[in-house]
Amino acid sequence: MIENPPSNLPDQDKPNQQEGESNPQKQQEPINPKNLITSFFNKYKLSIIVIVAALIVGILLIIYLIFIYKPKTQVQTPTQLPKAEFILDEPKDQQAITSAQITISGRTNPNSQVVAYTDTNEEIFESDENGNFSGVLTLEQGPNEITFTAFGNNEEEVSETRSVVYVTEGEL
Question: Which CATH number fits domain 86-171: 2.60.40.10, 1.10.150.20, 3.40.50.970, 3.40.50.2300?
């Protein structure tokens, strides 16, 4: 048995209106973009506000992290650099030599300078990566007071003086 559809529903087989007839109730109004935008914003107002607020908070957080927040870093205290070390191997104190050239050698801080000077001459020696230095200093005939000064990493100085006598072969 087939039931009849309710009378308030239109029949699918029958057209509601004949061609050429207009139905004033079914006419569509022209679409107004302003009304569409207004209805969209009214419908999603809360969602839009939440999204805009989240964007503003995110931008402010990024600005804070980049420009204001400075992570705490441990301040490293500078390590104490070694003081000037100076060991003079040559010449020996109270030494007599028969040459105007005397060999200077010893050890000090790595990659630093040692200055050797008399009343008339001065030489600067550079130590190697192990602290060894050597070179030659010219002496005047007779007694010579040679002062050696080593410079440390903290600009401190260590000095030592040695007496050397330069005599000719005939004076011996």
Answer: 2.60.40.10
